[in-house]
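lol ok so funny story. i was supposed to be doing the assay writeup but got distracted and ended up predicting the structure for this chain instead. priorities right. anyway since i did it might as well share w the group, maybe its usefull for someone
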Amino acid sequence: MALLPILPFAPPIAGEQNNIAQPSYTYRLNLQTNRLHGNIDNLEAATQAIEKIFLTERFAYVIYPQEYGVELESLIGQDNEFVKLVLQSRILEAIREDDRVVDILKFEITQKDKETLLANIQISTIFGEIELLREVNI
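and the output, tada:
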């Protein structure tokens, strides 16, 4: 008669959310060279994760969960005022998916030119504050 091993923890039940905080230690991504270079942790890792959220189109890649990324492609060619309204809610929703984010302290969208908006965001994380200025092409 074979005995089953006793697990030190209960495996997650299908459909049940696992609310265990993930570690921040990760690889440093160099987006200019598309290379990994060393490791980062804490505030720098949280900043990189949020920047990567901006670079990932939501629902476009099966490797990511459906909550990951920002849905921007559907906004291309839409009215600028509509885009500003929708863009803010989509970016905030995407950023808040990261469990290191505590609060959004500032969020401003300004028009850079006819096809580009600037998103200026100040984010409070468990490691400190992050200020991001990102262009969004519409």
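The domain at 26-137 is CATH 3.10.450.40 (Nuclear Transport Factor 2; Chain: A,). The chain has a mean pLDDT of 85.
back to the writeup now i swear
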